[in-house]
């Protein structure tokens, strides 16, 4: 049977009710809870995260934060078993968060389970027309438009340093490219020692102790004479962007398959996902043709032979995957296959040896102790390397983790600040930081709450009270609608605030605002 949750919460709950009426109610409540914490979580994806200790203290200050703190330390299965009774629903949700390369029963990974349903029903799932490669092509055009150069097959051998500062890179062919302002590197923490001299030993040791995901991916690509036909009769299956191909409807059996991954064994059942995106995007293939693209879970280090065995085992495992697909497809058969390619976990390491270490395409495991400002370590969590000026870090092993999150934005913000540049005005396309925001500011609600907005007119703080306490001004409110915040302003900072705000021109502007809505 097919079961297709969608962005529409009502339709999804209607379909869940066919499995369990109780779970349909629970799921609606769970999604509402998930969506309630998104205003706190989502902005943090695009900016540097606070140190983990500070984040925990902030979360521990109210009920919403304590909920997040609680779920952060639990396993997905713990949360699923508390909320739901249907194995099919548990399998769907566990597979959803397992795309982050985490096992359902691992403690310290429950945050994904709390957040993913809310994200799915708020933002949905999308893909560039023409495939994900179109995003890369667009970024290349942007870089080149602004005077940048993209080099292919250009391997960096070493980061060049002088006087404790990164000054350029040395290529594998001996060429040296000197930096004007800084060097930005996608260097896995396990590889930092290889590329950078002069880093203190404790920093390197902590970087090399970071933990990789417990399993990896096996990718299959097929070019087909005709589009894929599914055994499931629901026509909506062909329009889906993501399809999980569950080989069992028993959660205990699926957990056995996950346990096999952890032990380096080949599971009894295949853990598969895939689709023929040409059904919804014909530009992906020549006219009338089809495709099949699949990612499946596989151990990186095989129990028999280790990771090096993948080169001889790749085709055999690919055949097992193909047999798994054929349980769901009617025409993934030799007569319909033009070409196929299997990519093992070792192939991924070769594709990106300094990022996908150990076959971990997300850089590092998404464990609690490797999250926020401690990802990958407390030393490196602010996108810089201690003791090496002008060297900045990017990659899936940095906050917020793997996936298409626009994560390099946080690195850019840190770099802009160090260079004395205005990030908001530059990225927002505004020459003058005093120009108004491009997004219309919402009308002020008729209440006694003062609201502060960011440059896109999204609320970042609601101020409930401004009082005096001794020689301080005390401002109380909530950030992002959930987290309580108390801000204190002393005499020296109050004088600075007045100096910043009260030029004759600004004073006139402030007074005129009082008469506007």
From TrEMBL:
Q: Where is coiled-coil annotated?
A: none
- Single GO MF descriptor: oxidoreductase activity
Instruction: Spell out the residue ranges making up region: Disordered.
Output: 269-290
**Annotated Gene3D superfamilies:** FAD/NAD(P)-binding domain
Which Pfam family, an example, fits this chain? Amino_oxidase
- Quote the subunit structure annotation: Interacts with COX5B; this interaction may contribute to localize PYROXD2 to the inner face of the inner mitochondrial membrane.
Briefly state the protein's biological role. Answer: Probable oxidoreductase that may play a role as regulator of mitochondrial function.
Q: Do you know which PANTHER family this protein is assigned to?
A: PHYTOENE DEHYDROGENASE, PYRIDINE NUCLEOTIDE-DISULFIDE OXIDOREDUCTASE DOMAIN-CONTAINING PROTEIN 2
**Protein name (Swiss-Prot/TrEMBL):** Pyridine nucleotide-disulfide oxidoreductase domain-containing protein 2
Organism whose genome encodes this protein: Halioxenophilus aromaticivorans
């Amino acid at each position: 049977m097919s079961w297709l949750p969608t962005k529409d919460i009502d339709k999804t709950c209607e379909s869940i009710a066919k499995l369990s009426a109780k779970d349909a109610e629970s799921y609606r409540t769970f999604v509402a809870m998930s969506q309630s914490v998104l205003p706190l979580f989502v902005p943090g994806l695009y900016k540097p995260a606070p140190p983990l200790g500070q984040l925990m203290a902030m979360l521990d200050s109210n009920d919403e934060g304590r909920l997040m703190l609680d779920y952060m330390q639990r396993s997905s299965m713990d949360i699923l078993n508390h909320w739901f009774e249907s194995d099919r629903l548990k399998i769907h949700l566990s597979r959803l968060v397992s795309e982050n390369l985490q096992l359902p029963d691992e403690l310290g990974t429950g945050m994904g389970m709390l957040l993913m349903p809310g994200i799915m029903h708020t933002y949905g799932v999308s893909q560039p027309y023409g495939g994900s490669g179109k995003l890369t092509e667009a970024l290349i055009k942007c870089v080149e438009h602004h005077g940048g150069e993209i080099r292919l097959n250009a391997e960096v051998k070493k980061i060049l340093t002088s006087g404790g500062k990164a000054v350029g890179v040395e290529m594998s062919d001996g060429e040296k490219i000197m930096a004007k302002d800084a060097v930005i590197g996608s260097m896995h923490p396990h590889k930092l020692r290889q590329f950078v001299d002069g880093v203190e030993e404790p920093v390197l040791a902590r970087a090399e102790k970071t933990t990789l995901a417990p399993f990896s991916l096996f990718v299959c690509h097929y070019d087909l004479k005709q589009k894929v036909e599914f055994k499931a009769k629901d026509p909506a299956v062909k329009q889906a962007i993501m399809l999980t191909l569950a080989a069992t409807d028993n959660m205990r059996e699926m957990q056995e398959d996950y346990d096999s991954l952890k032990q380096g064994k080949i599971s009894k059942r295949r853990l598969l996902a895939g689709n023929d995106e040409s059904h919804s995007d014909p530009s992906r293939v020549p006219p009338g043709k089809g495709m099949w693209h699949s990612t499946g879970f596989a151990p990186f280090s095989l129990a028999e032979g280790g990771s090096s065995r993948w080169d001889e085992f790749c085709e055999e495992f690919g055949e097992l995957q193909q047999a798994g697909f054929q349980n769901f497809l009617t025409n993934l058969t030799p007569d319909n296959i033009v070409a196929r390619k299997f990519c093992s976990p070792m192939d991924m390491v070769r594709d990106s040896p300094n990022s996908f270490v150990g076959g971990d395409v997300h850089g590092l495991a998404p464990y609690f102790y490797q999250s926020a400002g401690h990802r990958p370590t407390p030393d490196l969590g602010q996108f810089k390397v201690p003791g090496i000026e002008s060297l900045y870090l990017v990659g899936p092993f940095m906050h917020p983790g793997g996936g298409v999150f626009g994560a390099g934005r946080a690195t850019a913000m840190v770099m802009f600040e160090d260079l004395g540049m205005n990030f908001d005005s530059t990225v927002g396309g505004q020459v003058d930081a005093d120009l108004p925001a491009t997004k219309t500011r919402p009308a002020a609600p008729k209440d006694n709450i003062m609201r502060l907005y960011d440059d896109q007119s999204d609320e970042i703080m609601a101020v409930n009270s401004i009082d005096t306490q001794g020689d301080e001004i005390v401002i109380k409110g909530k950030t992002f609608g959930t987290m309580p915040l108390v801000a204190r302003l002393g005499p020296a900072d109050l004088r600075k605030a007045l100096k910043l705000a009260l030029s004759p021109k600004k004073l006139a502007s402030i007074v005129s605002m009082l008469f506007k809505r």
